[in-house]
Amino acid sequence: MKQLEKAELTEEQQTKLKELAKKTGAEMQALRKEAGITPELMKKRAEAQKELKESGKKPAELFAEVNKKAGLSEQQATALKKANEMRADLLKKAVAMLSEDQKSKLPKQLLRRGMDKKDGKNRKAKKKAE
User: Fold this and answer.
1) Distance between CA 31 and CA 88 in Å, rounded?
2) What is the tens place of the pLDDT at every residue in 18-32?
């Protein structure tokens, strides 16, 4: 929600987004609990991520290395990946709710993350065709 403050959401958009966020948050929490992901484990993972941030590895490699260093099991790493996908999906749904004027007020990085990857690829293909 904080990331979208600059878009000046309407009351209706805020209500819809809060509902979506609440539902997604509950699903993510259940997923973490089922996988045995504790706050201590997340803290350990955050420390490993800080340590390895400048390693120059590709995102997928970095994700795997951080999880290994933090001592996550394969099930826990899969649960975290799914939770990240859920968070990204929430962002896409939120951005899709916005008008073009509201989208223009968002930081470009946030807008890119909120776009469907297919849309981004299509734009690149169109540019190459021109």
Assistant:
1) 15
2) 999 999 999 999 999
User: How far, in Å, CA of 101 to CA of 38, rounded?
Assistant: 40
CA-based radius of gyration for the chain: 17
pLDDT average, residue stretch 28-53: 93
Q: Could you tell me the pLDDT band of residue 120, with boundaries at 50, 70 and 90?
A: very low
7 touches 98 (CB < 8 A): yes
- In angstroms, rounded to a whole number, what is the distance separating the alpha carbons of residues 47 and 59? 17
Residues 71-111: tens digit of each pLDDT = 999 999 999 999 999 999 999 999 999 999 999 988 888 88
Which stretches of 10-116 are DSSP H helices? 11-35, 39-52, 59-70, 74-97, 100-104, 108-113
- 117 to 13, 22, 28, 43: CA distances (angstroms): 23, 24, 22, 30
